[in-house]
Design brief:
By secondary structure, the protein is mainly alpha-helical. The protein contains five helices and four strands. Keywords: DNA-binding.
């Protein structure tokens, strides 16, 4: 099938499909006139990629995981590449959550301090003053 049909069947635009191909996630044969031709398995492969991206995995992670993917959703067979990549991604997400929680706590403390000390010394903010970013 050509790229337009794959787009229709998966709901993914051609630009994304070409990106998946450039990342080694999707294979296409080239016809003599240069058109991409995908086999039937490309439909499932694109759906697998979309599900894995939705889980927060990078295209690099997905490249390791696809050999372990079975079915559209996909079900991931516990191969070593899969477990290593998923544990690594989970660690990165946990680190991001920790950083965000610390940032939130610090910002909350600044707001509380400003509310305690600044309210009696400054007129209320009416939204027209410039606020530094």
């Amino acid at each position: 099938m050509r790229i337009g049909e794959l787009c229709r069947r998966t709901g993914v635009n051609a630009r994304q499909l070409r990106y998946y191909e450039s990342q080694g996630l999707l294979d296409a044969e080239r016809t003599p006139n240069g058109y991409r031709e995908y086999d039937e398995s490309a439909v499932i492969r694109v759906k697998q990629i979309r599900h894995l991206l939705a889980a927060g995995l990078s295209s690099e992670d997905i490249a390791y995981l696809l050999p372990c993917a079975d079915g559209e959703t996909p079900e991931l067979v516990g191969c070593p590449e899969l477990l290593t990549a998923m544990r690594s991604r989970l660690t990165r997400i946990d680190d991001q959550l920790d950083r965000l929680a610390r940032s939130r706590d610090a910002l909350s403390a600044f707001i509380a301090a400003a509310e305690r000390t600044g309210a009696e010394h400054h007129p209320p903010f009416d939204g027209t003053e410039a606020v530094p970013a």
